[in-house]
YhfH family protein
Amino acid sequence: MLMSSTEFFSNLPPKECSRCGEVVDEMHECYSNECLECESEIR
Ligand SMILES: [Zn+2]
């Protein structure tokens, strides 16, 4: 049985950056709890 990935993600709460509170792109979730901007600031 196939489940649409769009449907699957729509059931999840939006992930927010732990620093600035921006919603983090789901594609990016493997890296950290921070958005691309904050993550690049750290390094
Ligand atoms: Zn951020």
Remarks:
- The pocket of zinc ion is lined by residues 17, 19-20, 22, 34-35, 37-38 (CB under 6 Å).
- The chain has a mean pLDDT of 76.
- The helical segments are 5-10, 36-42.
